TrEMBL record:
It is an enzyme of class 3 (hydrolase). Pfam families: Glyco_hydro_10. It comes from Serendipita vermifera MAFF 305830. GO terms for biological process: polysaccharide catabolic process. InterPro entries: GH (IPR017853), GH10 (IPR044846), GH10_dom (IPR001000). Keywords: Carbohydrate metabolism, Glycosidase, Hydrolase, Polysaccharide degradation, Signal. It catalyses: Endohydrolysis of (1->4)-beta-D-xylosidic linkages in xylans. SUPFAM superfamilies: (Trans)glycosidases (SSF51445). Belongs to the glycosyl hydrolase 10 (cellulase F) family. GO terms for molecular function: endo-1,4-beta-xylanase activity. Residues 12-296 form the GH10 domain. This is Beta-xylanase. The lineage of its organism: Eukaryota, Fungi, Dikarya, Basidiomycota, Agaricomycotina. Its EC number is 3.2.1.8.
Length: 298
């Protein structure tokens, strides 16, 4: 953060919004904005972009993002290896454990090795839990059971010794939900059995008026035994200045919280554009929430 020097404010972006949208790119590049110094690829590091066809890797978009970050002095949050969504159908169709294990290892070794030393962190597993707190159905879970978690984290650690390894999920603001409790219990168990989990990411695609719960949630997540937590995909319905300031202060108040990533720059390109959840409007003008955050930080 601008005032504290240590924590980051980042954004999700990708090649299209950097190469073909100069106004957006200028905001991302600008150090006068809230020190955006971490970038998360919104889509370019997902399995269906990088390895849509088995063993045919396409790094064009992800290389662009990583090179852009390096040339502009920013860090990268890698997103994401194991996710049930944006997963090619050839992976979803695998039925046997040996093949799936080999495919996961190969995917992680190819991508992990390529970006080793160039990403700050990886979302190794994304959205593993249901609202009821059970493990979500996916090809990973149905073929390998919970062991895919250990397999994935250990593989990423093997090919990238420096990145912080995260487990990431949504709807983890109220610390009383089954998904939230399940995340904490599973992470405790996995860490105690040696799975190299460094951090928990809470996506924080928030409704209006719930920001007051974020600080307690961050503290509880940090209490699971990870060394850090982060808000990884923040956007807030209608982007009220007080909600944004409350979330910002929550991260500042929790020492394990390393930073906040906004899920985009302008409402125009947001995945939920109708909710106007970001800090810049459809014309790339800073909104009141942006000004309020600056005021709170300085
Ligand atoms: O790449 C194709 C393109 O070839 C095609 O012409 C176009 C036509 O619709 O679609 C393009 O793919 C789209 C992709 O974004 C890239 O733009 C997909 O249809 C679209 O579904 C996809 O949406 C992304 C979504 O994840 C997919 O689940 C959003 O941009 C992205 O913001 C969103 O991000 C997720 C996080 O990864 C995980 N947490 C939730 C978050 C919001 O859903």
């Amino acid at each position: 953060f601008i005032a504290k020097g240590k924590k980051y404010w980042g954004t999700a972006t990708d090649i299209g919004l950097l190469l073909n949208n100069t106004v957006n790119e200028a905001i991302v590049r600008s150090q006068s904005f809230l020190i955006i110094h971490k970038l998360t690829p919104e889509n370019s590091m997902k399995w269906d972009i990088i390895e849509k066809t088995r063993y045919a890797f396409n790094f064009i978009d992800s290389d662009y993002l990583v090179d852009y970050a390096r040339s502009t002095g920013k860090l990268v949050r890698g997103h994401t290896f194991i996710w049930h969504s944006q997963l090619p159908s050839w992976v979803s169709a695998i039925k046997d454990a040996a093949t799936l294990t080999e495919v996961i290892e190969n995917h992680i070794s190819s991508v992990g090795t390529r970006y080793s030393g160039r990403v700050y962190s990886w979302d190794v597993c994304n959205e593993l839990f249901t609202a009821e707190g059970t493990m979500r159905y996916s090809v990973f879970y149905s073929v390998l059971g919970e062991t895919f978690v250990s397999l994935a984290f250990n593989a990423v650690r093997k090919y990238d010794q420096t990145a912080k390894l995260y487990i990431n999920d949504y709807n983890m603001v109220s610390n009383a939900t089954q998904r939230f409790l399940s995340m904490i219990n599973h992470v405790k168990t996995w860490i105690s059995s040696g799975v190299p989990i460094d951090g928990i990411g809470t996506q924080a695609h928030l409704s209006a008026g719930v920001a007051g719960d974020v600080q307690a949630a961050l503290s509880a997540l940090a209490g699971s035994g990870v060394s850090e937590v982060a808000i990884t995909e923040l956007d807030i319905v209608q982007a009220s200045p007080s909600d944004y300031v409350t979330v910002t202060k929550a991260c500042l108040a929790v020492s394990a919280c390393v930073g906040i990533t906004n899920w985009g720059v302008s409402d125009k390109e947001s995945w939920r554009t109708q909710d106007k959840p970001l800090l810049f409007d459809n014309y790339y003008r800073p909104k009141p929430a942006y000004e309020a955050i600056i005021a709170a930080l300085t």
